[in-house]
Amino acid sequence: MRAHRHSILSATRSAAILFGFLAAATPVAAEPDAAKALAYAAVERNADEIATIGDSVYYFGELGMQEFESAKFVKQVMESIGFTVEVGGAGMPTNVWAHWGAGKPQIVIVSEMDALPGGSQTPGSIEHKPLVPGGPGHMEGHNTHPGVAIGAAYAVKQVMERYNIAGSVAISLGPAEEQIISRPYLVRAGQFKDSDIAIVLHIGDNFAAGYGLMNYAAISAKFTFHGKTAHGAVNPWDGKDAVDAVELMDIGFDKLREHLRPTYRAHRAITAGGIQPNIIPDYGQIWWFVRDASMPAAKETFDKLTRIAEGAALMTGTTHEYQIDAAAWPQLGLKSIAEVIQANIDAVGMPQWSEEEQEFARKFQAAMGVRVVGLNTRQTPLGQRGQSASSNDNGDVTWVVPSAGLSFPASVPGISYHNWQAAVTPTSTIAHKGMVSASKVLAGAVLDFLTKPELVRQARAEFEKATTEMKYFAVLPPDAKPPLDLNKETMDRYRPEMTRHYLNKTVRFN
Questions:
Q1: Do 203 and 339 reside in the same domain of the chain?
Q2: Which of 295, 328, 361 is the last residue of a domain?
């Protein structure tokens, strides 16, 4: 499917005419419909720019903590539309914080733009056809997020300037969401201390605004064991096997599973398991994710895991240490904020899919062996989504700022993320149309909070009530530092070939 300019509907033609009239008029108090029409027109006018942002980030295909080209590109775009951009917050060189406006309220759009290992794929090809064999790629569609966020922020800025609306809008694009890393560090550093409302943005196959606990808490930690080398045949009795300790820790936790809460999840990868069979290894490492429906429950299981590591070291005569790289709370969505988002979803409506796009979606679904239903044409009604066992690092933000999530339709139903198939469509017209519609919804919601103080007060009251019994606490140790070399080796390996596919396009909003 070739990218093309998103068709301008009759309503947005009217909005464009209205925009011309308003631009020439003397600043007056904004009528909600007129303000949003102006925002919609700004988004529609810049549909190609929004798509180009998403496509450019797609071809960068950068893994968490290595989003250097993506961060540089987004910074340039945001500065070109008048935003102040800070890169490097909380000691992470690829963290992006963009801001425009002054005073209260501050509405922040929270998202990310990292790719996944092994996700390289030729866009539009239903057959597995990597652009760079073995390389990383966007098989969750995070590349679409900055386009949506920037398109909405630009539109909001146009309205705020036209009507002299007080307040500010910010965008937080944190690195390494796929490894649930950045937000706990950013919250600890105080990046969100001035924010009044947060809208957490993520791609989906439909429009949805949910509330309640929407995913799991997670703690990510590496346990490293140190022993003593020896010849496996000549004098193994002189060795202290660090990999034996890794295996004993693994087995020990398996024996514990029966006695854990039914809501828990835990999984691991052995990241260092010896060199060759006849060398007793003096180094071993195992990387664990521990999850549960709440952070206190996840922390309880994690504490048990640390004691199992102590036992494994004791049994093998080794020493050990562990390092918590990430500790993300479950995402807490507030009904009052979700209702505002949903009202804007209902006002904008679903993208108008072409028959070509529907046919492609059905063909894709059939090829992948999933239910053949085409693209969604009706938005998801408001309601509690139910708590997913997956995790993301945005949860910490939602425990310090009143928040809710916005999912937008830019992928094909039934095509699961974290598989190469999900990298087929993030630069398609399906994604582009979903991004444009999402920018309108997001802009409308931000404007509602900027212009209706009672909505911010309602959200704050609900937040205070929701966090009365469970108060946020940091799980990251005070001396924990973000793993800046995460994924560096992989990107260093594949980046030279990936650069051949960069779009190198300039984005100019108008």
A1: yes
A2: 328
Residues 291 and 202 in one domain: no
Q: How far apart are CA 170 and CA 321, in angstroms?
A: 39
Measuring CA to CA, how many Å separate 361 from each of 63, 355, 376, 412, 417? Answer: 27, 10, 10, 6, 15
The predicted model gives 226-234 an average pLDDT of 97
- Residues linked to residue 99 through DSSP beta bridges, in sequence order: 84, 170
- Asked if residue 230 and residue 316 are part of one domain, the reply reads yes
* pLDDT per residue as tens digits for the range 128-151: 999 999 999 999 999 999 999 999
Indicate if the pLDDT at residue 11 is higher than 80.
no
**How does pLDDT run across 426-475, given as a tens digit for each residue?**
999 999 999 999 999 999 999 999 999 999 999 999 999 999 999 999 99
pLDDT of 7 higher than 60:
no
Say if residue 204 is in the same domain as residue 227. Answer: no
Helix (H, G, I), strand (E, B) or coil at 128: coil
Integer CA distances (angstroms), 489 to 83, 450, 485, 494, 495, in order? 33, 44, 8, 9, 10
Q: Are 53 and 75 in contact (CB under 8 A)?
A: no
In three-state secondary structure terms, 188 is helix
Q: Is the pLDDT confidence value at 219 over 90?
A: yes
Judge whether 499 lies within some domain.
Answer: no
Neighbours of 227 (CB within 10 A): 23
3-state secondary structure 166-186: CEEEEEEEECCHHHCCHHHHH
- 261 and 376 housed in the same domain: no
3-state DSSP helix/strand/coil % of the chain, to nearest 5: 45, 20, 40
Is the peptide bond between 426 and the residue preceding it cis, with omega within 30 degrees of 0?
no
Identify the domain containing residue 292 by its residue range: 217-328
Q: Which H helix or E strand runs over 78?
A: helix 68-80
Residues near 127 by beta carbon (within 8 Å), at least 6 away in sequence: none
Whether residue 225 is found in the same domain as residue 316: yes
Cα 160 vs. chain centroid, distance in angstroms?
A: 27
